[in-house]
Amino acid sequence: MAKKILFIVGDYVEDYEVMVPFQALGAVGHTVIAVCPNKKAGEFIRTAIHDFEGDQTYSEKPGHNFTLNGTFDAIKAEEFDALVVPGGRAPEYLRLNEKVLEMVRHFAKTNKPIAAICHGAQLLAAADVLGGKSCSAYPACAPEVTKAGGTYANIEVTEATVDGNLVTAPAWPAHPQWIAKFLVVLGTKITL
What we know:
Layout: E1 4-8, E2 13-14, H1 15-27, E3 31-35, E4 44-51, E5 59-67, E6 82-85, H2 90-94, H3 98-109, E7 114-117, H4 120-126, E8 134-135, H5 142-147, E9 151-152, E10 161-163, E11 166-169, H6 175-186
């Protein structure tokens, strides 16, 4: 059965972490709506490509413009079946928006599926929804996961982890596992 999935995004979200799951979830029949505070459907956000090139942390390059298909002020979290929080720099400032935090809390309180990747854990930590949960994230976000009462899942960059309704991964190289595990949590059945 198709689900209605909310993406909360903002400028300089990681390019692959918004584009790939947005397209993949839509390709299997789910309705996917991406919103950004202070922006409307048809407007775009800028993205950044984070790459792993042997430095002490990721490098950053300009990504594509990503067109929003929902208006932030018009949506109601109650009308959605699941939430996706991509990483990049967007979660760093989105966590300062109380309406965004309320939306995240809604999905956690109602035990609806939540998928977060990379720096998306910053938003979950700020919403105080990680207590007692195992959560993976970009390694630099590990202190935020533990300070928020979660257990940091230190897994390979190509892996994903599930704790109840929460599906998390360290970064976009985990897309095959992260998206597959989220589809399982969603109850998605794919037949070829």
